[in-house]
Specification:
The chain is of the alpha+beta class. Helices cover 19% and strands 33% of the residues.
């Protein structure tokens, strides 16, 4: 058994003497910021004069245990046969799960370490890096222990748990150190327990355990900017070591107001927050002076600055507290006023998993999208719009950056974030002064992918079932508009109503599948999941005897009910925008991140070699653009376009600068009839994904749709990984005739060797270009630690079983 304990950072714990220090040279010569559009104070931190407590030399250390040294501090939690061992030469501890009691069907293993009587309120989170094998389900924390019946120890106070990605790869899981499933910890924190549970014998490798103080995230200086979470609300935040003060020179616009949220790190330790404005040599006017101590929520405040309109003033935010080692948070501090220009509001509305083929606006037989039909009559409908990948993470990161996945390099694991050097859609709008928000119920659209960047306010989780997400997200939107009512705004919705597991709410439940049929479907689904899930459909259907056609027909009807629900909610959103007077100057883009998988479509027989990204059911998605008075009504555009074209299009329509690096191109000539626009081949790319685990593999596919033809090139370090044609010949490239075979089931390599040669050369050239761009953006990869909320959201969407 090998283990060692290492100090990773030093942080302030008590500040006995706390002098104020100037952290900025900005004083009387500070630049005067204007708020002709919403002014995000956190974006202009460098322009502020900062007086704050300098972190002291008295320290609280972040602690990490790694398992590559001979000392042993961790011990096994005794169960009938649980073991804790370090295989020879390994750098991890292996926990073997054992039954809690005979016949219970629950398997458990855990290990614990003694702690030197810490105060749990000082600690923010615990990061466990682990590799799961077999059917181990989750990690769970316990705090402190009690004597067991045989002299061992038993867990006492349960903390949070987190579902595991069971793909045999190592992932980092972040769990809170100050949240409990039951009574709060009282007194000192004496032991940390890391446990795992499952439903059958399994094992888990623990590579490291790291306990991080809350102040660790704020150790870079007396003040700064970071993303903070309170409940489900994620916001860009100014932080300030207390006591401290930030002061800006600003010109207040007509109707000026300051909207911001108050936040604290530790419960029951109130901070006095103060906001004041000083004009010329006048005494400062105090606009806010109150104590706040709720560590679980933001204290949203709105302050009236309209009587300073037109004046250059000093705007100061201050904080003080009896506890001198604490930190004050100011969430999304935004100075705004009356609208000064006619830039449109932008609503970028993604229906996650929406296939155009199942929408009546695209000719589907069921009336699933009557509201989209009405919207389509007011704007432009693209008949041949394509997503760039087949699932959310690679697709979303591509269209918000206008860069393909192979360029971004964030495909190596599920937790690779975007490279720091790329600029997202939200960042473009935020830097231009737009108020920005992201409302989604798919965690791959949030922090895991680094897509919090550029958003003032964000949400990435929702109630379950996720099929009611549109209603919740729209409520969040209107709450945001109440808290930050000025314009222009940019909002990115990404609903999961039509995403697995298809559980539509009333009154849409029963619209196409009656209650008796629904009960039968639920029982079929339960049996199929127990025998491997619908993705392993051939074995599961044969083993259970369930009719494949009947099952998929029922599932498709549920999908249609979910689509009808999202469509109805979208219709209500538009009606309220009209009632609020915001519709006439709002640009609305409706699209999807990908279509519906073959387990919704019921392709029988299934793809003989696997399904290309460009197969119609995967990649043909809706794309509708509406801007009253600007985009001509009733257009139907037949030319092929790509989701990677959306970012340059939005920036072009709103008069913002185009991206410095882009692989898409503006669709404005098509939307506004300005100039010529010639179609070009549509490119797709994505790492191969294990359909059982959704883990990205070593192989990569780059593909093209070029008019009638579709071609898929496999890029692999392993020549044995090349797909085999039905005739048994290996081929790194497959070609399809999409006029006669839109679902790409039957490659035509044998019939058209000329096309094989042409498209192999074309895609190899594309791949080389993508790799060159990847080096330019610094796509080196990385890792984001997964939280319990994110893992639960992904599990509910079917990504994790």
């Amino acid at each position: 058994m090998s283990i060692r304990r290492v100090v990773t950072r030093t942080l302030p714990v008590t500040l006995l003497t706390l002098p104020l220090v100037y952290c900025s040279d900005a004083q009387s010569d500070s630049p005067v910021l204007t708020a002709e559009m919403p002014l995000h104070l956190e974006e202009h931190f460098d322009a502020a004069m900062v007086e704050a407590a300098e972190p002291s030399a008295a320290t609280l250390e972040a602690v990490e245990w790694t398992f590559d040294a001979p000392e042993s501090e961790w011990q096994v939690i005794p169960t009938p046969s649980a073991t804790l061992s370090a295989p020879p030469g390994a750098d991890y501890m292996q926990l073997e799960l054992s039954p809690v009691q005979p016949g219970a069907g629950l398997y458990l293993a855990g290990m614990y370490v003694d702690l030197p009587d810490w105060d749990y309120r000082d600690w923010g989170h615990i990061v466990v890096r682990a590799r799961a094998h077999g059917q181990v389900q989750a990690l769970k924390l316990f705090f402190n222990t009690r004597p067991g019946p045989d002299g061992g120890v038993l867990p006492a106070l349960p903390g949070k748990d987190v579902y595991l990605i069971r793909d045999g790869s190592a992932h980092s899981y972040q769990l809170p150190a100050d949240q409990f499933d039951g009574p709060q910890l009282t007194g000192p924190w004496r032991q940390l327990v890391v446990a795992a549970w499952g439903l059958e014998p399994a094992s888990i490798d623990i590579l490291s355990v790291r306990v991080v103080p809350k102040a660790a995230l704020y150790a870079d200086g007396p003040a700064g900017v970071r993303t903070e979470i309170r409940g489900e609300a994620i916001r860009r935040t100014l932080f300030l070591h207390v006591p401290g003060r930030l002061e800006y020179r600003v010109r207040v616009p007509d109707g000026g107001r300051l909207d911001l949220g108050l936040g604290v790190l530790k419960p029951d330790e109130p901070i006095a927050f103060r906001v004041s404005v000083r004009s010329d040599a006048d005494e400062p006017e105090v606009l806010l002076d109150e104590g706040f101590s709720d560590a679980s929520a933001w204290g949203q405040r709105s302050l009236d600055l309209s009587h300073f309109a037109g004046k250059e003033v000093s705007l100061a935010v201050e904080a003080s507290a009896e506890e001198s080692s604490t930190i004050a948070l100011w969430a999304a501090p935004t100075l705004s006023g009356e609208r000064a220009d006619d830039r449109p509001n932008v609503i970028f509305y993604i229906i996650d998993g929406a296939a155009a083929s199942y929408m009546s606006v695209y000719g589907y037989s069921r009336r699933t999208t009557p509201n989209l039909e009405r919207l389509a009559s007011e704007g432009a409908v693209f008949e041949k719009a394509y997503s760039n990948s087949t699932w959310t993470k690679p697709s979303t990161t591509s269209y918000v950056t206008s860069l393909h996945n192979s360029v971004l390099g964030n495909w190596r694991t599920e937790t690779d974030p975007l490279p720091d050097g790329v600029v997202t859609m939200a960042e473009h709008f935020h830097r231009a002064g737009y108020q920005t928000a992201l409302f989604t119920t798919n965690s791959y659209v949030g922090l895991i992918s680094g897509l919090d960047r550029g958003h003032d306010v964000m949400r990435e989780a929702g109630s379950q079932p996720n099929s009611i997400s549109s209603r919740e997200l729209h409520e969040d939107f209107w709450q945001w508009r109440t808290e930050y009512p000025n314009q222009p705004f940019f909002v990115h919705f990404q609903t999961t109503d039509v995403h697995y597991p298809y559980d539509p709410p009333a009154p849409f439940a029963g619209l196409y599948l009656d209650s008796q049929e629904r009960r039968a479907y639920d029982e079929w689904n339960r049996q199929l999941q127990e025998t491997g899930g619908i993705r392993a459909w051939s074995d599961s259907f044969e083993e259970t005897g369930i009719g494949r056609t009947e099952f998929y027909e029922a599932q498709r009807r549920l999908y249609d009910e979910c689509m009808a629900h999202n469509d109805a909610q979208l219709g209500r959103l538009v009606e309220r925008l009209k009632a609020e007077g915001e519709w006439e100057n709002t640009l609305l883009i409706i699209a999807a991140d990908h279509g519906a998988a073959w387990w919704v479509m019921d392709i029988d027989p299934p793809p003989p070699i696997g399904d290309p990204i460009f197969a119609a059911y995967w990649s043909r998605i809706p794309l509708i653009a509406v801007w009253p008075g600007r985009i001509a009504a009733g257009q139907r555009v037949a030319k092929p376009v790509s989701m990677i074209d959306i970012l340059p299009t939005l920036l072009d329509l709103t008069g913002l600068h185009p991206p410095e690096l882009t692989q898409g191109r503006s669709l404005v000539p098509l939307l506004l009839g300005q100039g010529s626009w010639e179609p070009r081949p549509v490119i797709f790319d994505m790492a191969s994904v294990d359909l059982g685990t959704f883990e990205a593999g070593k192989n990569f596919h780059i593909e093209v749709v070029d008019g009638r033809w579709g071609a898929s090139l496999l890029v692999s370090p392993d020549p044995d990984a090349e797909p085999e044609l039905p005739e048994g010949r290996a081929a790194a490239l497959l070609v399809y005739d999409l006029w006669s075979d839109p679902d790409a089931l039957h490659p035509i390599n044998a019939e058209r060797p000329d096309l094989v040669k042409t498209y192999r050369e074309f895609l190899q050239t594309q791949w080389a270009a993508h790799q060159a761009l990847a080096r330019q953006v610094g796509a080196a990869g990385g890792e984001v630690a997964l939280t319990p909320e994110q893992l639960e959201t992904l599990r509910s969407l079917g990504y994790i079983r």
